[in-house]
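BUG: 3D viewer hangs when loading the predicted structure for this chain

Environment: internal workstation, default settings.
Expected: structure renders.
Actual: progress bar stalls at 90%.

Input used:
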Amino acid sequence: MSGTLAIIGGTGLTELPGLTISVAHDIQTPFGAPSAPVLEGELNGLRVLFIARHGHPHKIPPHLVNYRANLWALQKLYATDVIAVNAVGGISKNMKPSTLVSPAQIIDYSFGRETTIFDGEFAPLSNIDFSFPYTEALRVQLLKSAATVQEKVINGGVYGVTQGPRLETAAEIFRMERDGCDIAGMTGMPEACLARELKLNFASLALVVNAAAGKGAAAITLKQIDDNLATGMQRVRLILSQLVQDYYLN
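Structure tokens produced before the viewer hung:
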């Protein structure tokens, strides 16, 4: 692929180990400040942009992330392709804790967020085709890179985006399951639609950190989530490192 690759780090990935930082871009955007400076550097000698979605240290709740500023800043620095890392809960039987998945579809249950750059002020009202919210070629590349390092990533699935920061009720999860959702998370939107508006290729690498409410044998604990984040993000970093090489060199 040709272009510039950017990575949005989520919960458990507030920095990218191995990234040799050349400059931290403290960008002001038409939408205000991004969550954190955009780090420009090299991973395995190859140029990468990185931004921590929740800030560094991790402090911004999902419903208050300035998604518009984050995506606009990446585009301003000439990003063309964006991988978003998401921590999610598992709904479907195959979405057990520690599972990695690259979803193919989204159902958005969030509310009250700034979801568009076509707001009549920054840009005139316009519509995008959002039938398929993720860029298939980038998803395929992500899956191939994961296979190269012998990491299994489930291909496809529906990401149900909830408001947060609280976790969902069991009834909400059962409703989402009836709707067809496989995973539940809080940050998948409006990132994906903003990327489409800004003409950025976009894909998600999601880590299941807990069984969603009502889907596990016991109550959800922060320790369980933190333990799965610690081990799972090591695997995510391995995949991202390979993806950077494949993106630029293959």
